[in-house]
Amino acid sequence: MSSIGVDLTRDETKGLTKVLAKNLVGILEAKMPMTDKAHREAAFYVLRSPEVPSVLIETGYMNNKKDATNLTSPEWRQSMAEAIAKGIDEYFSARDSGMAAIFGI
Questions:
Q1: Which residues, including other chains, have CB under 8 Å from residue 60's CB and lie 6 or more apart?
Q2: Tally of CA atoms within 13 A in the half-sphere of 49 that contains its CB
Q3: By CB atoms within 10 Å of each CB, which of 18, 32, 56, 79 scores lowest?
Q4: From CA 81, how far away is CA 87, in angstroms rounded?
């Protein structure tokens, strides 16, 4: 693939990643407290694929007592897994409906 093709693919993937992340944040914020800037970008290797939208979800920190309690609760983990799956399902449903649907145009 030419460098122009890679750049175009990467730009499209960045847009799709933002849509996926925004959707996940919207669903997860109803289930758990979030920071003011819940959606951030980083240059982690696993997030840099030019072809595949990717997100990193942090659901808690083991050194935080409330987070640790949540992370060890099977019910809480199930609730988080269901919310994440819902966000991913909604993303793919919108994507399958076409680019206009996913970008809200």
A1: 32, 67, 68, 70, 71
A2: 10
A3: 56
A4: 10
Q: What is the pLDDT of residues 45-92, one digit of tens each?
A: 777 776 788 888 888 889 999 999 999 999 999 999 999 999 999 888
- As a whole number, the mean pLDDT across the chain is 81
- The letter for the amino acid at 2 is S
Give the global pTM.
0.75
List Cβ neighbours of 61 (8 Å cut-off, separation of 6 or more): 67, 68
Continuous H helices in the chain: 3-28, 65-71, 74-96, 99-102
Q: Helices 3-28 & 74-96, crossing angle to 10 degrees?
A: 130
CA atoms within 13 A on the CB side of 22: 9
CA angle in degrees (0–180, nearest 5) for 13-45-89: 45
User: Per the structure block, which two tokens stand in for 50?
Assistant: 């030019």
